[in-house]
Write a structure and sequence with these properties.
alpha/beta, single chain, 17% strand, binds NADPH dihydro-nicotinamide-adenine-dinucleotide phosphate, binds oxaloacetate ion, seven-stranded mixed sheet, disordered N terminus
Length: 442
């Protein structure tokens, strides 16, 4: 796989070409300095794009044959992203940060089709942050992944310095600083939730192992593929060398949906709604918290006095918003999910506004609320913008809120028992309390 590493610390702002492999050849590490795009020919746009590199003959040893495992499984740079650049020649890049590696699974799916272009445009990590996108697919999606990479090429994003595609997570997750785990099998008609937990759980167990083996030790992982809380739990249990705190299940879409409904009811624009927590599971048992939420800085209950609406209509609307959308649109939320992934990442890489917080599904060990330990549960968090977060302590509970939290907690504890075989905790026993639904199911 071709690796381009920006080295802003060096005086030349040159790019290093590190060891890389095509399916047959291996080049030793070499340094490129003060070159424009020289000696480069775009590789053919085939499944096994060959790697070309703008280095002089002095800097490259003769290619040596290296044994490869399964060349089909190797991720490879794609098209124009196999070229090398001289950043010194591009003055505007001189203040750029060091390149970061972002791995995305389910990269040929609907959500990714929105998300990848936001990442590449700098909407997520900022206009001075070059990125490498590493796209994970499967045999099913090989051709489609190439199509995605072609669209990324044609978009001419200056910050997008590298795109590689592959089907082996051990390859695609190498050195990942962010892993956005979107790919998962959708629940089909007549499929039991327990079966979905098992099928998708296997995917997340394997991906957890791969992250453990090859990702950055401080990788931040956002699990989107459903059932995302329990998938995130499986993933972190299979990655013991990565802090459990670094794993998130995406509940930001639910938070955004709740803000929209509160704004509509109060007749304000949604930027006036803050402090909204989604507690628990990304399922129809989730709890959108209107007790701690604020509108124009006032408690929601002082602005919306219709408690029945809050407890019944509002809560159910947020819980089932995904299903309502599927009925209209014929498929599950993709664009708004991508937006919420952007929001979730930005909440971790920018300081949280004073007094506010955001929701994310995180590991419960050490939580100050009394929620059961050892599950992934959506809770209110703040960040100082370094990628880490802390749980918010000053929240209040009443009987209504706490009883709802216990229901979603019970569901997650039951889901955990269903996947014991995937978390290293023995034999799975699956007895779910009712067959609760994903937000997208009716
Ligand atoms: N947490 C949240 O807020 C939300 C979560 N979701 C969830 O996100 C996930 C992705 O949604 P979306 O992008 O719309 O879905 P798509 O169906 O468009 O894409 C899903 C991708 O999952 C991959 N996949 C992995 N394993 C399987 C399998 N066994 N069978 C079929 N496909 C598989 C496929 O990629 P490949 O062929 O490359 O493996 C496919 O491209 C779903 O699980 C969905 O429920 C959706 C909305 C909100
Ligand atoms: O159920 C689904 O696949 C879609 C989903 O999570 C949502 O819309 O919140």
């Amino acid at each position: 796989m071709a690796m381009l590493e920006l080295s802003p610390s060096s005086s030349s702002h040159a790019i290093k070409a590190s060891t890389f492999h095509s399916s047959k050849l291996s080049y030793v590490p070499s340094r490129i300095s003060h070159q424009r795009r020289l000696n480069v020919r775009p590789p053919p746009r085939t499944r096994h794009a060959k790697v070309f590199c703008s280095v002089t003959s002095k800097e490259v040893q003769a290619p040596v044959a290296v044994p490869t495992e399964d060349p089909k499984k190797k991720s490879e740079c794609y098209g124009v992203f196999c070229l090398t650049y001289d950043l010194k020649a591009e003055e505007e890049t001189s203040s750029w940060k060091k390149l970061i590696n972002v791995s995305v699974s389910g990269a040929a799916g609907m959500i990714s089709n929105h998300l990848l272009f936001k990442l590449a445009a700098g909407e997520v990590f900022g206009p001075d942050q070059p990125i490498a996108l590493k796209l994970l697919g499967s045999e099913r999606s090989r051709e489609a992944l190439e199509g995605v990479a072609m669209e990324l090429e044609d978009s001419l994003y200056p910050l997008l310095r590298e795109v590689s595609i592959g089907i082996d997570p051990y390859d695609v997750f190498r050195d990942a600083e962010w892993a956005l785990l979107i790919g998962a099998k959708p629940r089909g008609p007549g499929m039991e939730r327990a079966a979905l937990l098992d099928i998708n759980g296997q995917i997340f167990a394997e991906q957890g192992k791969a992250l453990n083996a090859v990702a950055s030790r401080n990788v931040k992982v956002i699990v989107v593929g459903n059932p995302c809380n329990t998938n995130a739990l499986i993933c972190l249990k299979n990655a013991p060398n990565i802090p459990a705190k670094n794993f998130h299940a995406l509940t930001r879409l639910d938070e955004n949906r709740a803000k929209c409904q509160l704004a509509l009811k109060a007749g304000v624009f949604y930027d006036k709604v803050s402090n909204v927590t989604i507690w628990g599971n990304h399922s129809t048992t989730q709890v959108p918290d209107f007790l701690n939420a604020k509108i124009n800085g006032l408690p929601v209950k002082e602005v919306i006095k219709d408690t029945k609406w809050l407890e019944e209509e509002f809560t159910e609307k947020v819980q089932k918003r995904g299903g309502a959308l599927i009925q209209k649109w014929g498929r599950s939320s993709a664009a708004s999910t991508a937006v919420s992934i952007v929001d979730a990442i930005k909440s971790l890489v920018t300081p949280t506004p004073e007094g506010d917080w955001f929701s994310t599904g995180v590991y419960t060990n050490g939580n100050p609320y009394g929620i059961a330990e050892d599950i992934v549960f959506s809770m209110p968090c703040r960040s100082n913008g370094d990628g880490d977060y802390e749980l918010v302590k000053d929240v209040i509970f009443d009987d209504y809120l706490w009883s709802r939290i216990k229901t979603t907690e019970a569901e997650l504890l039951a889901e955990k028992k269903c996947v014991a075989h995937l978390t290293g905790e023995g034999i799975a026993v699956c007895d779910l309390p009712g067959d609760t639904m994903l937000p997208g199911e009716m």
